[in-house]
Write a structure and sequence with these properties.
The complex is a heterodimer of chains A (332) and B (387). Chain A has 332 residues and is mainly α. Chain A has helices at residues 10-21, 27-37, 45-69, 71-74, 76-97, 113-135, 144-160, 163-176, 194-218, 225-244, 254-275, 278-297, 303-331; one strand at 42-43. The longest helix of chain A is centred in the C-terminal third of the chain and has 29 residues, at 303-331. By secondary structure, chain B is mainly α. In chain B, helix 3 runs antiparallel to helix 4. The chains are: A mainly alpha (332), B mainly alpha (387).
Chain lengths: 332, 387
């Protein structure tokens, strides 16, 4: 519960008094800290952000229902105009409030800034989708509206330095290629287009990882790199894992996928270890373990041996992780 | 908990607070460092990704031991045999190993609770010869107590959530479950509230009590919510007599009033005591009460309500922020919109995940043929869900 500050922290209040006596904290600095520790001053910043997120999500859910169920009553032109105006109003406010452009990191001008930007882009996306479905200006290439939305979101994310919007741009790009969390779920291998989705996921994943590396190399919004790298590696490992976990009787290529997820996971784990990026290391280890377990367990037909495999590998990995953690602590 | 564990926990609370003050700019980095030196850490800890991995693999290993023992002994009684070694392992890891939140002790504790469940089920079902229904029902209090012990002994506060939920679920299985749940929640709430800020308790125990308080408030609200009453949600959990009683108008009226007043009371209490947990609980209850009203009264079309609710949330957040910022010292009544160091990376990650989960459009499935309710193929910017 790191994001939840308890109402009172008696030990912290006692410590502040001690630290003042010991001369570590100046009394004037200690006074507000003491109020926080006693629960007399509480920040509601997290709650305000949560309220803003709920506002955007509820509004977009309502817009979704409006478009789905009330087309006949309201009329397409009115809906298109209404959405366009609402989106334009949000983006105009963002343009008015927005800080000057910089390739580096910039603090958000206000708490609501990111969310109004998000609402504006989401409304623009709904507008694009609506126009495409209603009047089909793109004809057979109608999914391109997702690409357009993705590019718009990416451009605005870079302009206004919004990592949340950048991540939405990447997932919208993946959605354009048919890749979503549900299409990559472990049970989606039954889909007839599972192969295509998997290959698209691999391509998107590689593209995102490469994009992240490029951002760092060029020094252009390098703080966006973690978003691109985590989404990219998530897609790569997810696609490989889905292939590895399909039933052996259904597709004989499962072993190839399992070997690939094992190798990719190992590679990512080594990269994560070298770069001290523990989240990537964790993703890599999980991927490698999944691939290894699939390859090791499939040929075993004895339940005892399977259970023994998980006892031995689980305990070994716990020991290895403890060792790795100790090494990290020593180097720090 | 042993004294040395308590001392370590209290020191950690101070270090974390100093870290948060440093992040919020309330103290300088040097001051935060000086505080950390005064309250040194003698525990073995792990970074969050490593702790998550260790938790997963320790749980896998622990549960595999249970399965292996059950196969070898050809009986679920193996669960009871595995409990002592697992308990000793966790005790040694937390004690002599001085491990805190490294994931290993948590994963093994999870495996331990599962072993207790399997062993208890076997004992009641086979050793005592009770029916499978009775055995399953008896699992609820056993698991609740096991979670409580894990909380109390090793300071794993998150175990309080399943523990409290299982305890209320057990109460709901009785014939008059609704009133048992309500009575227990009402009786426990002041005790838990008092305990969650009691100076003599350790930080982890206070967190556990705060979690139990949230579950109790949720249970109380569920017991008095009008829709839950009319739909007999709690009565459907009763073990034997699954009758659906006809509620008297007085009971319905009381529940109607409680559905409206309980969220307001919890919110008011949260504001008065500046308790964020109560504010969250009150806000969730308020949202649930609004949904309940919608179930009985057709106020307006769903899309209108959703858009209005969304705009109301946005407006409330903006107005509240502005109102607080304009107060003396950018605070009013002890509330400030400024950061005091809470949040950080986990919060940012949760925020991004929530945005992606709710606003990422669906993948195109087939060519457009016009809007269809409940589709999901078309969309952009989060509008896909309702298309």
């Amino acid at each position: 519960m790191g994001w939840y500050a308890p109402r009172v922290q008696p030990e912290v209040a006692r410590a502040i008094a001690y630290l003042v006596r010991a001369g570590v904290l100046a009394p004037e600095k200690a006074a507000p800290l003491l109020r926080v520790a006693r629960g007399e001053l509480v920040s509601v910043r997290v709650e305000l952000r949560l309220l803003l997120w709920a506002g955007v999500s509820l509004t977009m859910a309502g817009v979704g229902l409006l478009l789905g169920q009330n087309l006949a009553q309201i009329g397409p032109l009115t809906i298109a105009l209404g959405l366009g105006l609402a989106s334009a109003a949000c983006l105009a406010w963002v343009a008015w409030q927005g800080p000057p452009f910089s390739w580096g990191q910039q603090p958000s001008p206000s708490l609501a800034f990111d969310y109004v930007l998000l609402l504006g882009v989401s409304l623009a996306g709904a507008e694009l989708a609506f126009i495409e479905v209603r009047w089909a200006p793109l004809g057979g290439r109608w999914p391109i509206h997702l690409l357009v939305l993705s590019l718009l979101a990416a451009a605005l994310a870079v302009r206004y330095d919004s990592r949340v919007l950048f991540s939405l741009a990447l997932t919208t790009f993946a959605a354009w290629r048919g890749v979503t969390a549900s299409s990559l779920s472990l049970f989606a291998w039954e889909r007839t287009d599972a192969w295509v989705v998997r290959l698209n996921a691999l391509a998107c994943g590689a593209l995102f990882v490469a994009l992240g590396a490029l951002l760092v190399r060029l020094g252009r919004k390098p703080h966006f790199e973690p978003v691109a790298a985590h989404l990219g590696w998530g897609l790569l490992l997810g696609a490989l894992a889905q292939g590895a976990l399909q039933p052996a009787h259904r597709d004989a290529t499962w072993a190839v996928w399992a070997a690939e997820v094992l190798l990719a996971g190992l590679g990512l784990a080594v990269h994560g270890w070298r770069e001290r990026r523990l989240s990537l290391l964790a993703m890599g280890v999980l991927g490698a373990y999944l691939g290894l377990s699939r390859l090791a367990v499939e040929p075993i037909h004895d339940d005892r041996a399977v259970a023994l495999y998980f006892v031995v590998t689980g305990a070994s990995l716990v020991a290895a992780l403890s060792l790795a953690q100790r090494r990290l602590a020593e180097r720090r | 908990m042993k004294t040395e564990w308590i001392v370590a926990e209290r020191a950690e609370a101070v270090r974390r607070a100093a870290e948060a003050w440093g992040e919020a700019g309330l103290v300088s980095a040097q001051d935060a460092q000086a505080i950390a030196i005064r309250y040194p850490d003698d525990r073995v800890r792990a970074a969050t990704p490593m702790a998550v991995l260790s938790f997963v693999f320790a749980a896998v290993a622990g549960l595999a031991v249970l399965v292996l023992a059950a196969i070898v002994l050809e009986s679920p009684a193996a669960g009871l045999l595995v409990v002592p070694p697992l308990a000793i392992a966790v005790e040694r890891l937390v004690g002599a190993g001085r491990r805190v939140r490294t994931g290993v002790e948590g994963g093994l504790a999870l495996a331990l609770v599962v072993c207790v469940a399997v062993g208890a089920f076997w004992f009641v079902d086979e050793a005592l010869g009770a029916s499978a229904d009775t055995a399953a029902r008896s699992l609820l209090p056993v698991l609740a107590v096991a979670c409580g012990l894990v909380c109390w002994r090793w300071g794993m506060a998150t175990a309080a959530a399943p523990g409290a939920c299982l305890a209320y679920l057990f109460l709901a299985t009785f014939g008059s479950g609704r009133w048992l749940v309500l009575g227990t929640a009402v009786a426990l709430t002041p005790v838990l509230s008092h305990g969650s800020s009691h100076a003599r308790l350790t930080p982890s125990h206070r967190r556990a009590l705060a979690i139990a308080l949230a579950v109790s408030l949720a249970a109380a609200y569920l017991a008095v919510n009008l829709h839950s009453l009319d739909s007999h949600w709690i009565e459907s959990l009763a073990w034997h007599a699954r009758h659906k009683p006809e509620w008297s108008p007085v009971v319905r009226l009381a529940c109607l009033a409680a559905t409206a007043l309980l969220p307001a009371a919890v919110l008011a209490r949260g504001v008065r005591t500046r308790d964020r947990l109560l504010l969250w609980c009150g806000a969730v209850m308020l949202a649930a009460s609004c949904v309940t009203v919608r179930a009985y009264v057709h106020v307006a079309p769903a899309w209108v309500l959703l858009v209005l609710a969304g705009l109301a949330c946005l407006a409330a957040a903006l107005l509240l922020q502005r109102w607080l910022e304009r107060g003396r010292g950018a605070e009013r009544g002890g509330f400030t919109p400024a950061s005091l160091g809470e949040g950080g990376d986990p919060h940012r990650l949760a925020e991004t995940a929530a945005v992606l989960a709710t606003l990422t459009p669906g993948a195109p499935g087939r060519p457009p043929e016009g809007f269809r309710a409940g589709g999901g193929e078309f969309g952009g910017g989060g509008a896909s869900g309702g298309f």
